[in-house]
Amino acid sequence: MRARTRQAILDAAITVLGQEPTVSLGAIAAAADVGRTTLHRYFPERSELLRAVNAEVTARLERAVGLARLDEGRGIDALRRLTREYFDLGDVLSLIFNQPHLTAEVGWADPGVCDPRFETMVRRGHEDGTLDPDLPPPWVHNLLWAQLYAAYGYLADSDTSRHTVLGLLVRTVTGAAGVKSARIEE
Question: Hey, which of 13, 35, 68, 148 would disulfide with 81, CB 3.0 to 4.6 Å?
Answer without folding.
Answer: 68
